[in-house]
Specification:
4pyrrole_Mease_sub1, transferase, Uropor_MeTrfase_CS, alpha/beta, 202 residues, precorrin-2 C20-methyltransferase activity, CobI/CbiL
Length: 202
C-alpha cells in the first residue's frame, strides 16, 4: 500500500496526529526533498526521491517511472508512506506519482492523508477570512469545481454540466461515522446538507 501523507506548510507542530501515526508505522517512507525529510525525521528515517523541476516531458516521464518502480516494489510488500509539504491532493508531487502508479501498478492500493495546504496556511498567516466563493489558480485553465454547502446537489450538477463539467462526486460528512461518498452521477441525491460537497471535473 502507498499512502500520500500531507505534512502541512513546514511547521512541525502542524502535522496531524494521523500523519504522525502513519509515518511511525510505515515500513518505508519516501519524501521529495530536504524540508519534507526534516519534518519526517522525528518519526521515520525517510529516503529522498528526486523530482526535478524541468520541462522536458520525456525526461520527466522516465524519472516518474523510475520512482514508481522503486515505490511499487516496497508498496507490494508492506506500507509505504510518501510525505510531502502541503496536502497530497492539491498541486502536489504525489498527484503525479499516483497517476504513474495507477497506469503501471494498478494492483498497488493508494490512499492519502490530508495536510494543511498552502491555501489555508496563507489565510491563517495573513489574517484573511474567506467568506464567499473564491478561485484558486496556478495560471492553468480551470478544470475542477468544488461546491461547498451543496444542499441541492442534483441541481448543482445540472448547472455544472452546462459549464462543461462531466465527472462528479457527491460527498457528505467526510471523515465522520456517517460519511457518504457517491461517484455515480445518477445516484446523486436531490437534497444534501450543510456538510455536503459536489466535486466536478471537466
Amino acid at each position: 500500500m502507498l499512502i500520500g501523507v500531507g505534512l502541512g506548510p513546514g511547521d512541525p507542530e502542524l502535522l496531524t496526529l494521523k500523519a504522525v501515526d502513519v509515518l511511525k508505522n510505515s515500513d518505508k517512507v519516501y519524501v521529495p526533498g530536504r524540508l519534507a525529510k526534516d519534518l519526517v525525521a522525528p518519526y521515520a528515517d525517510a529516503e529522498i526521491l528526486e523530482f526535478p523541476m524541468i520541462r522536458d516531458i520525456e525526461v520527466l516521464n522516465s524519472l516518474w517511472k523510475e520512482n514508481a518502480d522503486r515505490v511499487a516494489e516496497e508498496a507490494r510488500k508492506g506500507t509505504v508512506a510518501f510525505g510531502l509539504i502541503g496536502d497530497p491532493n492539491f498541486f502536489s508531487t504525489f498527484s503525479h506519482l499516483k497517476k504513474v502508479m495507477r497506469k503501471h501498478y494498478p494492483d498497488v492500493e493508494l490512499a492519502t492523508i490530508p495536510g494543511i495546504s498552502s491555501i489555508t496556511s496563507f489565510a491563517a498567516r495573513t489574517d484573511v477570512a474567506v467568506e464567499s466563493s473564491f478561485e484558486v489558480s496556478d495560471g492553468s485553465d480551470v478544470g475542477y469545481m468544488i461546491h461547498l454547502k451543496a444542499t441541492q446537489p442534483k441541481s448543482i450538477v445540472k448547472q455544472l454540466e452546462t459549464e462543461g463539467y462531466t465527472e462528479f462526486i457527491f460527498a457528505e460528512r467526510l471523515f465522520s461515522d456517517n460519511e457518504l461518498i457517491i461517484r455515480k452521477k445518477e445516484e446523486i441525491p436531490e437534497k444534501g446538507n450543510y456538510f455536503s460537497i459536489i466535486y466536478g471535473k471537466k
